[in-house]
Amino acid sequence: MIEQFAENVDLGLSKSEKTLPSKYFYDKNGDELFIEIMNMPEYYLTRCEMEIFTTQTDELVDSFRADKNEYFELIELGAGDGSKTRKLLAALSDKGYQFDYLPVDISQNSLEQLQLSLQHHLPLVSVVPKHGDYFEMLGSVKDSHHPKIVLFLGSNIGNMTDTVASDFLYQLGANLSKNDKLLLGTDLIKSEDIVLPAYNDESGITHSFNINLLHRMNTELGANFDLDAFSHAPEYNEDEGIAKSYLLSNKEQSVKIAATGKTYHFRAGEKIHTEISRKYDDDVLAKILAKTDFSVNSKFTDQKNYFANYLLNR
Ligand code: AVI
User: Fold this and answer.
1) What average pLDDT does the chain have?
2) What residue owns the CA closest to ligand 1's atom 2?
3) Ligand 1, atom nearest to 154 Cα
4) Contact 186, 225 (CB under 8 A)
5) ipTM score
6) Which residue, judged by its Cα, is nearest atom 11 of ligand 1?
7) Where does the Histidine-specific methyltransferase SAM-dependent domain lie (predicted)?
């Protein structure tokens, strides 16, 4: 694990345009900061998706299955605390649908919390947590031959490049059967004055989230990053529809990383690219889906048209 972290870091920091993989944001501290991000006034994404789930619950759950009496599996990739999904679970359960809920997450701790909270709030819903990597888990449920609805929410797909997203959806489709469905949460392309503050909040939580990556490298890889010598510098280009996060070196400096055995040099103003947050529209999605087995069935948006949950048919 540490070896792979060190290898990825070395690869990214050795490039002429330095990068660090965003998956390393999410240690315990990063998970907590991300929960804070979701509650920030500037971070509209979570509220908008919640609005869709709250105001269009019936339409959403009824679009999942034609036959109420046919058992299905509801699989959520990256379930986290499951707070939004709880709305859907409650509606499915109230309407008498026959299903098991299979939350998949890399964090055992999140899964345990989620299971406890669902036992308390929705004791009638059968929860079968799956700990591990998305595809490993999908592989393990593939053999069940029951119809499946997969949830991939929160614009998590936005942290992938279009090529990676297309590949990911292709692989996901390969693990599903015809007539299975995918509910995909996407943040929609909109103007800079709305998107950029979501990644550059006044209270500095996103700054801490980005800098936490350097902190992790200090504690886990024996690096000596001076955390005050880097700034959080997000950008958004509306034409492209992509928000990008960078860590900017405030001065010329060198950093040693024990785990890679190397020293890395940073020019004053040099940027490390840490994350992309892709925003979607129907055309972007169509291009991404072109080489996959999915097609759009329906689209649910919030009132402001900031966020969309696309229901896709396999
Ligand atoms: C998890 N993901 C969808 C978030 C996003 O909006 O790209 C991660 C995030 N990064 C900074 N703020 C939130």
Assistant:
1) 95
2) 156
3) 3
4) no
5) 0.99
6) 199
7) 6-313
